[in-house]
TrEMBL record, chains A, B, C:
Belongs to the ammonium transporter (TC 2.A.49) family. Rh subfamily. This is Rh family, C glycoprotein a. It comes from Scophthalmus maximus (Turbot). One of its GO terms (cellular component) is plasma membrane. Coiled coil: none annotated. Pfam families: Ammonium_transp. Homotrimer. One of its GO terms (biological process) is ammonium homeostasis. The lineage of its organism: Eukaryota, Metazoa, Chordata, Craniata, Vertebrata.
Amino acid sequence: MGNFCDIMRNFFCGTKNTNVRISLPAVCFVWQIAMIVLFGVFIRYDEEADTHWVKHKKDHNITSDIENDFYFRYPSFQDVHVMIFVGFGFLMTFLKRYSFGAVGFNFLIAAFGLQWALLMQGWFHSLDPATGKIYIGVESLINADFCCAGSLIAYGAILGKVSPVQLLVVTLFGVTLFAVEEYIILSLLHCRDAGGSMVIHAFGGYYGLAISWVLYRPNLHQSKRLNGSVYHSDVFAMIGTLFLWMFWPSFNSAITDHGDGQHRAAINTYLALASSVLTTVAISSMSQKTGKLDMVHIQNATLAGGVAMGTAAEFMITPYGSLIVGFCCGIISTFGYLFITPFLEKYLKLQDTCGIHNLHALPGMLGGFIGAIVAAAATEEVYGKEGLINTFDFEGDFANRSVLTQGGFQAAGCCVAIAFGIVGGAAVGEFKNSEHVCHVLQVPEDEEAIPPVLEYNNHMIHKHQEISESNFSVEQS
Amino acid sequence: MGNFCDIMRNFFCGTKNTNVRISLPAVCFVWQIAMIVLFGVFIRYDEEADTHWVKHKKDHNITSDIENDFYFRYPSFQDVHVMIFVGFGFLMTFLKRYSFGAVGFNFLIAAFGLQWALLMQGWFHSLDPATGKIYIGVESLINADFCCAGSLIAYGAILGKVSPVQLLVVTLFGVTLFAVEEYIILSLLHCRDAGGSMVIHAFGGYYGLAISWVLYRPNLHQSKRLNGSVYHSDVFAMIGTLFLWMFWPSFNSAITDHGDGQHRAAINTYLALASSVLTTVAISSMSQKTGKLDMVHIQNATLAGGVAMGTAAEFMITPYGSLIVGFCCGIISTFGYLFITPFLEKYLKLQDTCGIHNLHALPGMLGGFIGAIVAAAATEEVYGKEGLINTFDFEGDFANRSVLTQGGFQAAGCCVAIAFGIVGGAAVGEFKNSEHVCHVLQVPEDEEAIPPVLEYNNHMIHKHQEISESNFSVEQS
Amino acid sequence: MGNFCDIMRNFFCGTKNTNVRISLPAVCFVWQIAMIVLFGVFIRYDEEADTHWVKHKKDHNITSDIENDFYFRYPSFQDVHVMIFVGFGFLMTFLKRYSFGAVGFNFLIAAFGLQWALLMQGWFHSLDPATGKIYIGVESLINADFCCAGSLIAYGAILGKVSPVQLLVVTLFGVTLFAVEEYIILSLLHCRDAGGSMVIHAFGGYYGLAISWVLYRPNLHQSKRLNGSVYHSDVFAMIGTLFLWMFWPSFNSAITDHGDGQHRAAINTYLALASSVLTTVAISSMSQKTGKLDMVHIQNATLAGGVAMGTAAEFMITPYGSLIVGFCCGIISTFGYLFITPFLEKYLKLQDTCGIHNLHALPGMLGGFIGAIVAAAATEEVYGKEGLINTFDFEGDFANRSVLTQGGFQAAGCCVAIAFGIVGGAAVGEFKNSEHVCHVLQVPEDEEAIPPVLEYNNHMIHKHQEISESNFSVEQS
């Protein structure tokens, strides 16, 4: 067994890059152990996931197991889950040097963030004061996935610029800020935001942009040739785009009201997305001398309609209203990629690797205000008396709120989300720039120090790099 | 801001390829605006997606939100959605020069077509004469996706031969013809065709073949080396194949009757597909000197069982009957790829890029006739009295129809679908060959004029092409 | 038509590699015909998929179609189906020479196995003694997919080492053994194993390892350079990983009890998987000198938590208990890839291509024992009186079984699964080594005789190979 000793020595006594070898595992272990302890103290199954469901059914005269919330929400949950892990992950594979990093770190961030999200959202939204416990069910899982989405969006702005440990820090603060702003917007302001235009997209977008702005690296543009996409990395990215596009109706309808709420949200989102595709193609084709389409637009701007419907999808925005929203957002988002992103990079020194400003921040903000307008324009004639109460939850403390007031609060909620994103992101970015352990976590300054990209075992990579100096295109394979 | 002026000038004053730059955006914008207007006039939510659902529930004594049609059909809808966008899109990525074109234009066509489909199908099937409105719900979305499937199948025959604008024209007429033939077959002839063997596959297949036949380009075979597949474009195509194969049970069961109808359709399709795989592998291996398998067969013919079960899946075809259908169709479809496609190209001058004749047209036609036979063979003994009425909708005007008559009408329906496909396709093809604006939309005659393939931003493509002249295989990467 | 004659002569008179050309089609045809006959004799729709459902509803006072088992299980079934075909298939695409083989043969095996599984499981579990028929519904389809999973896991150990016909033999015996051990474990020992830690993963893992051990090929290590992965084959493998990871909650909850059972199993699996990701990343980063992550670990060990929760997911293991299971299994599985796989290959002459020992065999065995412990620790206080009976099915003959006894039987069940795997696998391996038709089915001894890899039509492959001798990396494209 002398073989083992050698392996173990190798394993624990490596000297190069010790920082990453220590910091990343340390953070993961400490964090995971903390999660186990906190889950032990706080988290329990809710009554629909507990073995007492049999009794609960009898007590509440529930005639069938199908009434369990699981059957209302689980199919949508799985679609959302696919969006988070495959959709967001593969959407970012378009960088030829960073396909693994995109998918792999997306995976790590989401798995890390969703545990913290269950706790944070639990403390703010569903802590039972009597027992001091958080009771979770399938809706909590969807909310945790949503919460991670905020941080994954932010990741899109800083892709390739930060180390894995920094990513985890960004996620940790991102989830925390998310839970706070969500509490303010949904509970204190009593806004409706089922698909998270404000809470997820506007917040996540501006959070990422603010971090990226603070972490500006002037020499990054020199490495642009390493940032490019290649033919098949773009086909991989289309996998991400399509799964996001197809499942967005589930995203926006996953936690809306049972029955008509989920039904209507799915229809509206479906229509807005279809409309976005056409205007994106139109603007993209117009913008190129040859009339060809730009894959970046097709991959991203086609999704803008779904982002912008996040708030209004559950309202009676009407089918043609949904088409109009998609129509406008497809145009705005594509123009964003054509003009705003280069402008931000040139004049504001703001690098936005994946263009999240155009896909999430801007359409999210628009979605928030669209929601406010649609809410303010609601009438009892269109919604019906019960429908109005049901849709806007005008119950309890909010029973006497008018739709106009609701519209005002929706707009206020959108501003809160943006403010949280910008201030929070700037703070997190500053904290990182100045942190004590800067030699560990500092932004890498040169190519050599590029953060540990996910790589293979077999070290074939070195052969690639050798070849790639003489023959550019081989590297892509 | 002088920078902006330059950009804007560049943007609007390009001179090369102005036609495509103008025609594609113009069509997209005009179309999308027309859709918004028509949706505004005609389309409303149905009672299950409207806020009046709360009231509707009370009025109809519905005890639970789970009775909303959304919960019966939404999981199947999402599966169908994946088939349309990822399944059809990636199945066509096998061409190494056309992976983007396949996925991207598939995306455009489907997003374009589904809006028109909602209107056309609405006018024919669900226009409320009292209000003049069309009421849509989740079943309408599934039907719109189905309707697009017809045009996407046709796209498979003309892949790489037509410009995007022509594709949109093909889709526009395809959806229109689809709605008419569907109305004749399902409403006037009162056929059953839940999975659309006749309505979708036979129609779509022959529609595409007729267009391709009229648009024959003699010099296309010279560009065959550009048409080939490469290793990883074939792996991408397997993504399409597998998602189609896995979700076909959802496709055939998505709009069948609640309860046993959906259940039985899923089981039958699952079995037919499994059986197809084995016979496809058998014939494919026999056909190669080395016994190796041909990826084209595995990618396509394995799906023939699902196509052929489109009509009969909801009937009591019995599990072994499903296996027999899959058995035969796997063989027939593979033989089609081996003998019929080369024969059609050589003697009938009919180019069928993706082999849709073997995957859709032929199995679809067979599926229609299998459905007719199974319907004619139905007995009260097997179905039960209520089951027979329920399965074939022998109600109202059709209460006295016998199963034999039903079988006859099913066969007639299949002929109608084929006739619509061939005549409609030939007409659309002729229209294009002779259309006034021929210099814009004409079939490109040489490599340079190849229709705007989706391409990247970063112009790396030029480097590729340079290299590819000296080193064949690099081009594929 | 002289052309046809030539084609037909070519088709039936090829002389090279006749064995594969004959044996594979022969097996497929004979098998599929046998299936049709056996299905005709034995298999019928169950009362929920039969047209008599209308009557059944009335007779049993079922008020709504939504009570049909289809709506409880179909979304989970589709997720499981994706795991079997895309998940397992793409997880094995990491070998650059074998991407097609992995996806294509996975497809063949599963389609072949699921038909036999429906029969075998039907005979053992649901044969109606009165009619001699097996009645199938959506739960049968899920079970058939599960049953194939066992053989697909085994395929992971022998990937690239056996011919397609041998694979079918392995699957045939695998499914048969599976049905027997499942009958012993679930029916005779009355264990609970909804997600199949024991029945699927421990059995499948040891079955594959035993076959691989018997079929040891000393010269295989020389072809290691052909076994390696390349950048984008690893991205393809991530598609498999992510779909397995995302849908594992559906896998473990697909056939658990309606209501709380499915709900709780999904939550527990979700948490265990998230926890696995963090510890896998930690160990993987620690193990590399540069702190980089090893894709093999990310692709595989992140899934260990799901495997290990297969038995306990439906119990009241508590959320933090699930995190602990994931925590430990992520560590153990990653250590397995680092130390156990090389150890097995070096000292036990056991080649394990995909490392199934670390992903399936070991975590599956652990999962079985974890299930035993959790079952033994169950109390009426935690579960409730009805909940306890409901969860462990303490009814009929087993009404008086205590939780301690149940725990003991669970542990016994796990041992049975392992024993079946090892003994069965060794027997199948020996049978193959010694079989009469050895010159047909023998393990190929050299590169030339590599089993028929799925290949393309257009013979471009030869150009590749030529080039690949001078330029290593081009081959990967």
